[in-house]
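Handout, section B. The chain below has 316 residues.
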Amino acid sequence: MTEPTATTLVELARRLGPDRVERDVALAPYTTFRIGGPADLFYRARTTEELAGAILAARELGVPVFVLGTGANILVGDRGVRGLVVRNEVRFIEFPDEIRVRAGSGVVVFHDLIEATVSRGLGGLHHFVGIPSTVGGAMWQNLHFLSPPPERERTVFIEEVVESAEILTEEGVVQTVDRDYFRFGYDYSILHDRDDVVLSVTFRLDPTPEAELREVMRENLKWRDERHPDLWLYPCAGSIFQKIDGVGAGRLIDQCGLKGHVHGKAGIFHKHANIIVNLGGATAAEVVHLIDLARETVRRETGYELKPEIGLIGEF
């Protein structure tokens, strides 16, 4: 898709409503990395109809469109994003029956959905406490968490509780699909290969005593806090690289002596070498330098090829 012209951007803004569209909005405040240049157009979608409508309008005009949730698991380029960025604020939560919950794709899993379900004694989503992801982002990457003891080494995936989803397909059709449609894998769903957009998801959960669920949540948070940075102190995007054949990327990077390495205002986190943090005013270029350094060093010294887990969005 070619870079949008000023004329097409004006027309897209007109269709979405001039009072609803912002121009040249810096994206750094909307990402957990706190890094990123401006979006040409920025639109907040608050209903599934608005989300689908914005995407369809952009596609019709040939304007590139990116759907932004909490901004986790991505790095936005310093030069920003051409075209339209849709901020997904579709945040409804409803309970069709005693074991199911339906949530808009913009619902934050940690802050909203987990609390709503755990307070009703419904388990399944509680494992993901502390992970800054929307429902849509969780579907895109098949959100997962490696449980601490006594369930250590059991990776819990969001796919385990997904029943169905309402999506806008790349062909422009709104339809409901079941879990198998997504072809979930490790850090993978069909959304990586198709231009579909999740509008809402229905989860089937397990009735569980609330006290039991909250105990698991406390243990998971404790385990995360010991290894992961506080996003207020060290903005980041979580794990940078995927695990390789059961070998943690952080362990490989650490073996190469790169834990704690700093470039500019970005650094490889001193507690977890698979996390790069913003030490205050870091640029995307500085983060990319560390990504390339880690990949090249690990390849040279261990023979392993690190594969990035985060998405690189926009122009660098």
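Note. The radius of gyration is 20 Å. Compare this with the example in section A.
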